[in-house]
């Protein structure tokens, strides 16, 4: 099972943002996409997920062409997108927020499996999601995506605004998803954190893939260290 992006192009109105972007994420693999502000990372995830209709290229999951399918179809096809803003329904309980992810009924919505990944949510199932900490809300957002029993998951900056300890917790969970055989595509500004867990990394600039390799290979490159790792 592989999520394959081939020569994808997308933009907003007449403004072309993504150009000829290709990448692959296999089952049981974490691929991270890094790049400076405005490089097109969010746009890439939106085009892969079909929220934004690609203007060229294609996206396949397990060999099935899913390019530009309606978002509500994507979940039932096995692709889940966890957007940047941790969209929780603040007045709904944690349990109701999670249950919303099971609406496609691709899987049975395995709440126990989600709680195993995020034990912190167990005692908070009845709590309004709006009263959770930022980290816990991120866990709900990811957990909700998992309730659809996806084969591939797209995550847009799950670490943003979180304390280092919570970031580490979220990254750990992503490694568990890899162990469970998901294809994980992770957009991150926190390059240190994402390089710590990723099998491969893709660097984007101005809507194009300019570098790719293992994190280990990429950190050897001065341009990567200077641009994304504070020169360290
Ligand atoms: P960041 O890390 O800052 O979130 P990014 O790499 O995710 O950046 P995108 O959000 O994909 O970048 O934005 C890529 C380009 O597309 C930017 O120049 C941005 O201004 C533009 N853009 C994003 N959304 C829209 C929109 N709805 N309409 C027009 N242009 C947009």
Automatic annotation (TrEMBL):
It comes from the Bacteria. Signal peptide: none annotated. Pfam families: ABC_tran. GO terms for molecular function: ATP binding. Residues 3-231 form the ABC transporter domain. SMART domains: AAA. InterPro entries: AAA+_ATPase, ABC_transporter-like_ATP-bd, ABC_transporter-like_CS, BCAA_Transport_ATP-bd_LivF, P-loop_NTPase. Keywords: Amino-acid transport, ATP-binding, Nucleotide-binding, Transport. Belongs to the ABC transporter superfamily. This is ABC transporter ATP-binding protein.
């Amino acid at each position: 099972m592989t999520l394959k992006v081939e020569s994808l192009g997308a933009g907003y109105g007449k403004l072309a943002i993504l150009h000829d972007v290709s990448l692959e994420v296999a089952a049981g693999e974490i691929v991270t996409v890094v790049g400076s502000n405005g490089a097109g990372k969010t746009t890439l995830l939106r085009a892969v997920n079909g929220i934004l209709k690609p203007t060229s290229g294609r996206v396949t999951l397990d060999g099935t062409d899913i390019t530009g399918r309606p978002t509500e179809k994507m979940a039932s096809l096995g692709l889940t997108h966890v957007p940047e803003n941790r969209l929780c329904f603040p007045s709904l309980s944690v349990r109701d927020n999670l249950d919303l992810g099971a609406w496609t009924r691709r899987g049975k919505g395995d709440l126990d499996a989600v709680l195993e990944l995020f034990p912190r949510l167990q005692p908070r199932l009845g709590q309004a999601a709006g009263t959770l900490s930022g980290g816990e809300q991120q866990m709900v957002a990811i957990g909700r995506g998992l309730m659809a029993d996806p084969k591939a998951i797209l995550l847009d900056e799950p670490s943003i605004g979180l304390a280092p300890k919570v970031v580490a917790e979220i990254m750990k969970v992503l490694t568990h998803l890899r162990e469970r055989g998901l294809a994980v595509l992770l957009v991150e500004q926190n390059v240190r954190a994402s390089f710590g867990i990723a099998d491969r990394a893709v660097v984007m600039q101005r809507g194009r893939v300019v570098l790719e390799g293992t994190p280990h290979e990429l950190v050897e490159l001065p341009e990567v260290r200077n641009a994304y790792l504070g020169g360290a």
